[in-house]
Structures are given as C-alpha cells and as structure tokens.
Amino acid sequence: MSERFSDKVIYQIYPKSFCDSNGDGIGDIKGITSKLDYLKDLGVDYLWLTPFFVSPQRDNGYDIADYRNIEPMFGTMEDLEELINESDARGLGLMLDMVFNHTSTEHEWFKRALAGDTTYQDYYIFKDGEPDTPPTNWKSKFGGSAWEYVPTLKKWYLHLFDVTQADLNWENPMVRSELKSVIKFWKQKGIKGFRFDVVNLISKPDKFEDDHEGDGRRFYTDGRHVHEFLKELVADTGIDEMITVGEMSSTTLEHCIRYSSPKEKELSMCFSFHHLKVDYGHGDKWELAQPDYMKLKQIFTKWQEGMLLGGGWNALFWCNHDQPRIVSRLGDDRRYWKESATMLATCIHLMRGTPYIYQGEELGMTNANYDDISQYRDVESLNYYKILTREGKSEREALDILAARSRDNSRTPMQWNDDIVHGAGFTEGTPWIPIPGHKPEANVEAELQDSDSVLQYYRKLVSFRKQYPVIAEGDIQFLYGGISEVLVYVRTNGNDKMVVICNLIGKAVSLPCKLDESKSELMLHNMGFPVNRRDGILELKPFEAIVYRLV
Ligand code: GLC
Ligand code: CA
Fold first, then answer.
1. Does the annotation count 197 as an active-site position?
2. What is the CATH topology of the domain spanning 474-550?
3. pTM higher than 0.90, yes or no?
4. Domain ranges in the chain with CATH number 2.60.40.1180
5. Measuring from each residue's beta carbon to the nearest atom of ligand 1, which residues come in under 6 Å?
6. pLDDT at 1
7. What DSSP character marks residue 161?
8. Among residues of the chain, what percentage have pLDDT more than 70?
C-alpha cells in the first residue's frame, strides 16, 4: 500500500496564514485556490490542508465544533468545491485533517453531554469525582491538568490538549460510527486523502491511574485498541487505497511499522517526532539545549533502516505548523541561510519515505523572532509563557524560550513578495499575526526569478524524486555512524546507487571518502563551486550537501 505514494510529495497548507483573498487579514480557501498554479509548478502531488471546519479557534481549528461545515472566515462550501475542482484540474489531490481524538467543547455532542444527556456523556471521557481531586494526575500537553471539573454534573472530563478540546471515547461504537461518517462525507466530496491528528492517542486505558513517572502519556499513547480502531475505521470507510498519514505522538518504531505496513491495512505512513526533540533539554520542549547531532543521526538511522526492515513507511519532514522553522533551528538563518536551508532540504527529501513541505519552507522562511508577548497568538505559547514565568523565569528568559520554541514561528504569513510592511502579498489588510521583519528576501516573487534560490532547489528535489526511482524506491543504509557532524546515507535500487552527504553544521569538516572518483557522478550540490575532494578526503564547507550517483 505505502509504496504507491513513494514518488509523491505533499505540501502542507495552514489556511489561516497562506493567502487572504478578501483583506480581513486571515488566509482563506479562495486564497488557496488563487495560488494553485504556484503549487503545481513546485511539482507537488497532494495538498494537506489543516482544519478549516467550524471552530471557536482556541487551537486554530484543531478544536472542531462541526466536522461537516466550514468556518465562515475561511469561506463557504462553494469555495471549497471550487478548490476541489480547480485542484483536480491540475492533478493536485486534497488531503484533509481529521481531528478525531477530541472535539471542541462547542461541539453539539459536548453541549448535549453538558446538558445532562448521558448518551452524549458517553461520547467523551467523564469521570465522577470531587471538585478538588481530579481522577488522575495526568498533565495536558498544553500545560496544567488534563482534567476539567463540571460542577453541574459533578464530573470531570479528560482533555489531553486545551480545556476546550474534550477527548472522545473511542470505546463507544457510536463515536466510531459518527467519525466514519465524517470521512465518508468528505470522501464523497472528492477529497483524496486524510491526515489523522494525534491518532495514536485515541485508545485510552480501561483503568485510569496516576502516573508517578511522567505526565500520563504512557497509559494512552499507542493504546491497547489503537490498531483495532484504525483497521476498523479504514475498512468501514474504504480508504485503504487512499493516501493517509497518522500523526503519532511519542510513539515507537514497532507501532509505526504496524500503523504503516501495507499488510496491516491501517495507514499509508506515519509522522513521528523523535528527530525534532534532539534540541530539547532533558526531553523538555521548554528547556533550550544545543542540538545533539549524534542523537539526530541515530534516530534517522533507527527509523529509516527500521521501517525498511519492518516494511513500514515514513512521512519525511522537518517543518509543520507546530514546529519552529528548521532553517532557524538546525541551520543558520543569518550567515548561512541559503546553504543551511538547501542542505536540510537535501537531507530529508532523499531519504526513504514520502516528503512533506510546509508552506514557506521552500522559501527558507525563518522563525518569527518576536520579542513581545503581545505578538504571540498560540494557546500553547500563551499558556507556557504564564507557566514559565510562574516557575521563576524572568519575562526575558520566557520570551527567549518562546522565540525558539513557539508554534507561532511557523504560523507567520506566507511571504509572496518582499513588501512585508504591506502584508507581503499575503493580505491587503492587517495580518492576524505579525509578519517578521528580518527576512523579506524569503519570498515567492524574488525566488521565482532567481535560478539559485531555495525555492528552485526545492523544485529540483521534488522533480528528482519522480525522475530517479532510486529515491522513491531504493533501500537505505547509513554510513559514518561515528562522525556526528556529517550525515551520510546510501540509497540502493538494484544496480542503481546514490550517496547523500550532508554537513550538518556551520563549520568546515573533513571526511575521509572512499568513493572511486571515476565511478561517481555529481548529481546534486547545494553550492556554486566545485566539490573539494582530494587524496581521499572530502573537504566539506559549512552546511554543504553533495549527492553522488554511483555508476
Ligand atoms: C496536533 C496538531 C496540533 C494540535 C494538536 C491538538 O498535534 O498538529 O496543532 O494543537 O494536535 O489537536
Ligand atoms: Ca480572508
């Protein structure tokens, strides 16, 4: 099943920040439709749209109040139908985001539950209790307790995310059946694939107990019935032929093999996040640390070789709407902006799996560098700002942490031109979130004209995947495990071999190179001067990426 999507590339759109068609400062569906030619030219196959359904927008649409209708600020059903048709006409498939672990507390089901309807209480996870003793000590992923008390019901409900995102009870067959009908509804509208939000958290334990070792996640992550639930969902909606990706929070390789192995008939591929935690201090997102490159390499090796061995399939990505911009994170967005953006792109795009490009990544868009709390919008950032300052950090320290870690870093408006004072081509009005001032050159207009831009490099990577079967279909093996600064892997497809060499750091590195000069052909290079290879040594410049084809 997965192999069918091995030569595809997916582009992720965060509608709120992509393109605003009516000047209200908020990106919308018509805005997306107006940019389809740009996306077609980039060469991508599918567009994954994050949620635009009816929602109070506490978590920017991941708090859904109605799965079948569109939040008015994003447009209408007619606008969406137009987007579907126009995408179809260009051979672009739309993928929608199914947020099935929880609903907004504004959802009709939850409102009925609150009004005392026990049928709907059973749609969620309500537990009897006293106002000051939550059922367990679990923590919400956005900070604070994972439980909220409802005095009128004398019950607590579970929310692994914001207090307005109540977890659904997947043990209840009626819930599963409701969610299946949502998928069928969108499938019938012409949607070509689905992304399932935090889908490995849907199966909760049958006993709720305190976690004395952590925040509770070990009790509900990759939970006891998760594979069963997914198999049932896929079988009953007939989506096993479609492209599907599951977002897997704190998961394991063993589970991801099962989620994505074609013979299991669950999903086509998985997002996992271990490679994006190598700069967390003590595993804590809110503690800044230098990236551990050795760990990064070990994680890629384990997941790439492990998924190959187990017959699973990875979604390949550095960026999404929850992650800081990779060029600011592992690259150097000042001294080596282009070099590091293109090296990181090479590194991820040529691995085994299906690559995802998050809007603006193809331009080398950077972190926001906000320095005032008023510039932030994200519920998680605002919560953690309070938590961090309450825990004793100064405002300055808390802002420095947000500047590195906030999800708003990726949610700044897409830069269509360099006029950042007047909306950067994103809007004619005032953008809902400020446009950062320091990287106007990362914009579509300029990069389309420049043959040497980050954008043109991404186009090349996308087209290479279609051109060279070794990228889409080859096996993978990692080399130089002992050298932390340089990531090297070989892709093999029969007699066809390709070697990818990436200097991960902003310093020159010498690498002993055993490749036979006469048998290696330079396929791709992210710098404008010759590769420096002499006497069996490769002298790599900061963030240099070299790809050889072995002939
Ligand atoms: C996923 C989404 C994130 C959201 C969370 C809760 O991690 O990517 O944006 O806040 O789930 O739905
Ligand atoms: Ca708008």
1. yes
2. Immunoglobulin-like (2.60.40)
3. yes
4. 474-550
5. 59, 62, 99, 161, 197-198, 247, 321-322
6. 41
7. S
8. 99
